Amino acid sequence: MTTARRDTYTPETLLSVAVRVFNERGYDGTSMEHLSKAAGISKSSIYHHVSGKEELLKRAVSRALDGLFAILDEEHARVGRPADRLEHVVRRMVEMLIAELPYVTLLLRVRGNTETERWALDRRRDFDHRVAELLKAAAADGEVRGDVEVRLATRLVFGMINSIVEWYRPDVRGASDREVAEAVVRLVFSGLRHA
Amino acid sequence: MTTARRDTYTPETLLSVAVRVFNERGYDGTSMEHLSKAAGISKSSIYHHVSGKEELLKRAVSRALDGLFAILDEEHARVGRPADRLEHVVRRMVEMLIAELPYVTLLLRVRGNTETERWALDRRRDFDHRVAELLKAAAADGEVRGDVEVRLATRLVFGMINSIVEWYRPDVRGASDREVAEAVVRLVFSGLRHA
DNA sequence: AGAGTAACCGAACGATCGGTCGGTTCAAGG
DNA sequence: CCTTGAACCGACCGATCGTTCGGTTACTCT
């Protein structure tokens, strides 16, 4: 068993700094010089901990994707009426988004310029399809409205949920993750009109 | 009156090419070399038409912002019951988003790295506030539900609308702009449950 | 105290960045 | 036919990109 030798960086602690800067400046807009300033170590020292810029990206988006897929394995997402399972997934997605905010933020901004980015986009598509099937099942059972196409509705609901990364900030005293999740569930299922 | 001397580029036609590449690779991920390849002219020739990379960005986001603000000046957005005015703005935002898709897409992705980007973010905030006030008025009149905070609801509705740029493609035979707008209005006001 | 090594650094690499410059091509107007 | 100027080009600029390398520091273990 190896313990930390001194108060220093690990790939994980370095990652948290990198992800913060990536989200502030964009991945392409962030240079290794920016990262070294933010981390307080020299540019070359970063390569002692990670293989390069792209490994940091891969570690970050992997963490976000693992969190999302884990939701689909939860019991409430697997058993029960489709509409209830959908509600559970929507609620947990919001909570996961907020819990792993910087990592999911980075994931949602990937454009596909590198191999790592294309891999992330593929896994995202897989996840989207899994949720779309849930909505489809709920529609087939007549538990949600059928006058809006399933694919279209899925994309719009995803859009609402994913947009949280654009404005949610944990530091300022606003709504908690549970409160945001509750608001999303209400709007997704009942809309703005009185319930 | 000056007519086009030969079949050549103008700042506007060059802009449409640049915006397409910006959206594919991201603004920071796009080099002038990328633009010159896509436009079919040399890198230095681009500078004959525009002052540089940032002017292309500014022209693009200006066009998107002008389109959005024009919606607020339309009669149906100024007179009538707040909830009806809100519905009109939501519907027109979707149509505008789709009509000016590449320009709005670029606008929604600026991060604030340059002066132009920060200016765009400021104008976006202004627009958001104007719509938030509309929702607030509708809530005060009891026309929409009050159990979800106005600021939160505004952000979520914006999130749903803005997410359209992430998946809508005019070439493939999918929903038309009117159909998407109708779907958004239904989900925003009534949600997934049966109306 | 001395060996071993994780952590770190400054300097420099070739490549590419956004942008400049002097000069060439080519169509319109007199 | 000749001048004019918009359109365009290849070559190049200093700066910065992600990354590498040789060497130094500082901590742990014996």
Automatic annotation (TrEMBL), chains A, B:
It comes from the Bacteria. Keywords: DNA-binding, Transcription, Transcription regulation. The keyword Transcription applies. Pfam families: TetR_C_24, TetR_N. Residues 8-68 form the HTH tetR-type domain. GO terms for molecular function: DNA-binding transcription factor activity; transcription cis-regulatory region binding. Residues 31-50 bind DNA. InterPro entries: Homeodomain-like_sf, HTH-type_TetR-like_transc_reg, HTH_TetR, KstR2_TetR_C, Tet_transcr_reg_TetR-rel_C_sf. This is TetR family transcriptional regulator.
